[in-house]
Amino acid sequence: MASYSTNEFRSGLKVLLDGDPCIMLENEFVKPGKGQAFNRVKLRNLMTNRVWERTFKSGESLEAADVVEQDMEYLYTDGEFWHFMLTDGSFEQFAADAKAVGDTVKWLKEQDVYTVTLYNGAPLSVTPPNFVELEVVDTDPGMKGDTAQGGSKPATLSTGAVVNVPLFITIGEVLKVDTRSGEYVNRVKSS
Amino acid sequence: MTDKPVWQPTASRDVLKNRAQLLAYVRGFFAQRQVLEVETPVLGRHGVTDVNLDGIPASVNAPGITSGWLQTSPEYHMKRLLAAGSGSIFQVARVFRNGERGRRHNPEFSMLEWYREGFDDRQLMAEVADLVCGWLGCKRPLVLAYRDAVQAYAGFDPMKVSDRDLARYCEQWLEPEQLAGMGRDACLDLVMSFVVEPKLGVDAPVFLTRYPAAQAALARVSDDDGFAVAHRFELYINGLELCNGYWELTDPQEQLQRFEADNRQRRAAGKSEMAVDQAFLDALDAGLPESSGVALGLDRLLMLKVGAASIEEVLAFPVERA
């Protein structure tokens, strides 16, 4: 596998550090005019999601990590694995375990497209699109006509996710939800 | 990984105007003091031996010459002019340092370098303060010895600390195996960059002086309280290193020894040795007048003037857009 020297460091680079795949978040070049140069680097460990700060001397290098992000359609779960398929027409399928799926499990809807990060060819993580549209399967009865007033209530969506919604939302409606904040955006349509 | 080229400049029109004003200010400053403006080669036959400076090699097609270096500073050529009797001189030069790119670095930058015949380091520091404070409208700089600065901000004596304790201190940032290949000066550079520099010049500009002799470069060395210190100074404003000056070494023998010591360090660091610039040594042999010289980063001076956080804000085109 290729490696990257300090002068190739930049944010977005995927590298191996202490055996784990990491993504470089920040890279600061520090050098006194006549002195030794250093790179101060912030990396996120893709296995643990923890952020590491490391310092490298100019000229040191890190091994590249075989990490790629691909668009895949979610197919189904067999209870142990969540199955995805490449959208590039190859129909190639990948099975992600619970660790890779993580919190995204609550946004997984069949036939929707997700970003699957592969490490050495196996799913490492699954990222939902910023917005998903999901049906309400359970919530307290709505108050008809109450569209302007504040106040909210919990609603359970088809994937099991629970979001706070306005009081007028009823069972069977499809909602647009921001997956980054887990917040309700708007009603898509009434069924 | 190559980015799509972007044609637009990174500096605003206002900053470009500021740059033009700065150049006019500098030329006015030296005209008033009767310091002669000169131009010397950007492409030279030799690079520098300094272990921490990498020039950019060039392929040349001229009679008997096939290679050269984009200069890391106009120092050798300007000293040759001094030895030839130019008197005090200044230059606004484009200089090149390979591999240096960051918030405060671009591999090509503008350097104001000047030499004052008959000045010692104190006198030149006063002139640097006139130039910088006249442009920025800042307070006059304080003077702080390297040793006192490290003592104050890092809590140890850089002249007395053992190599072992120094390495242990640096383990805050580096793994023991990274430190294994690092000399004392590289460790001190780390402490300087990470701990001391950010504190320098925050309230008022600070001249850092009296560097350890091992970091003398081309400055003369004298005894200070039993420790050999270099007559070298740097100016810091808001943690930004602005210039580097020396009371110049004029002894060709000692200069040659320092070049050879540099090359030993380069070998140890796995870098190729650099041929020593014989024309420069010959000029020292012929006699460099007693003088002090300083190199000041004009882009950084501009950053301070306009409050830029990053050097591209003051460059028309940083290296990625060049």
UniProtKB/TrEMBL annotation, chain A:
Q: Which Gene3D superfamilies match?
A: 2.30.30.30, Nucleic acid-binding proteins (2.40.50.140)
Q: Share an example GO biological-process annotation for this protein.
A: peptide biosynthetic process
User: In this chain, where does the modification N6-(3,6-diaminohexanoyl)-5-hydroxylysine occur?
Assistant: 34
Q: Which GO terms describe its molecular function?
A: translation elongation factor activity
Q: Which CDD domains match?
A: S1_EF-P_repeat_1, S1_EF-P_repeat_2
The UniProt keywords, alphabetically, are: Cytoplasm, Elongation factor, Hydroxylation, Protein biosynthesis
| Pfam families assigned | EFP, EFP_N, Elong-fact-P_C
User: What's this protein's family per the entry?
Assistant: Belongs to the elongation factor P family.
Please report the name of this protein according to its UniProt entry: Elongation factor P
State the species of origin.
Answer: Marinobacter vinifirmus
Q: Which gene encodes it?
A: efp
Automatic annotation (TrEMBL), chain B:
- The reply on keyword Metal-binding is no
Limits of the Aminoacyl-transfer RNA synthetases class-II family profile domain = 22-318
Under the heading PROSITE patterns, the entry gives: AA_TRNA_LIGASE_II
Pfam families noted in UniProt: tRNA-synt_2
Q: Which SUPFAM superfamilies match?
A: Class II aaRS and biotin synthetases
* Chemical reaction(s) catalysed: D-beta-lysine + L-lysyl-[protein] + ATP = N(6)-((3R)-3,6-diaminohexanoyl)-L-lysyl-[protein] + AMP + diphosphate + H(+)
Query: Cellular component per GO?
Result: cytosol
- Could you tell me the Gene Ontology terms of the biological process aspect for this record? lysyl-tRNA aminoacylation
Show the GO MF annotations: ATP binding; lysine-tRNA ligase activity; tRNA binding
Mind listing the UniProt keywords for this protein, alphabetically? ATP-binding, Ligase, Nucleotide-binding
> Is Repeat found in the keyword set?
no
Q: How does it assemble?
A: Homodimer.
Instruction: Tell me the NCBIfam families matching this sequence.
Output: genX (TIGR00462), PRK09350.1 (NF006828)
What protein is this chain from?
EF-P lysine aminoacylase GenX
